[in-house]
């Protein structure tokens, strides 16, 4: 048994010494408090923090070991209800707590999607409005080599959201904007059924509303490849809400 434990310890030492971790700086540039969250995809272990509170103008750093694949988003207008459950008007993950513990955000929600490669290989990242929009967001690599361009959705899509796609906050203002797929659930907007390929699912009037506000972001499932960005060499990343 001792031999087995020793063997596992030396294996994990080997593994750790060969791995890399990326530092993420999450900044809230919105004029109100937000609650950022992370979700690890593909069965990987969750990041050290799956949700936290971030006051206006504050930053927080997270270390995420690579390889990793997952998403970042932020929740808004959160509070603790009468039963002690933590709930948010946008991006709520249903955990009832500030950490999301492996649950995703309820759309409409703006997403930063990211894959960190192993061995300082090529990372992939994008901003996605395929699940709709709640807050403007950007991702900017720091260090690294290759393309390493920032991708940003800098504009407030809520301001131009068609009324039938809008999610209203308690004060009556628009706090989220559903994508056409989410709002209408039709194959031609979701690129499903006989529309399930890029040539059969072109941009539409609704996806163009998102694209016009945020040209670098994915506006629907088969948006053009210019929305995916890459960076190599073990970059760190800063993610800013309301950039
Ligand atoms: C990433 O940040 C860490 C410190 O948090 C630093 O040691 C490392 O050099 C940075 N990597 C790059 C590529 O800038």
TrEMBL record:
Keywords: Disulfide bond, Secreted, Signal. Residues 1-21 form the signal peptide. Disulfide bonds join 30-242, 78-88, 93-100, 148-231, 153-214, 161-177, 181-190, 191-201. The keyword Signal applies. InterPro entries: Osmotin/thaumatin-like_sf (IPR037176), Thaumatin (IPR001938), Thaumatin_CS (IPR017949). It holds the Pfam family Thaumatin. GO terms for biological process: defense response. The keyword Metal-binding does not apply. It is found in: Secreted. Coiled coil: none annotated. One of its GO terms (cellular component) is extracellular region. Belongs to the thaumatin family. PANTHER family: OS03G0233200 PROTEIN (PTHR31048). This is Allergen Pru protein, putative. It comes from Medicago truncatula (Barrel medic). The lineage of its organism: Eukaryota, Viridiplantae, Streptophyta, Embryophyta, Tracheophyta.
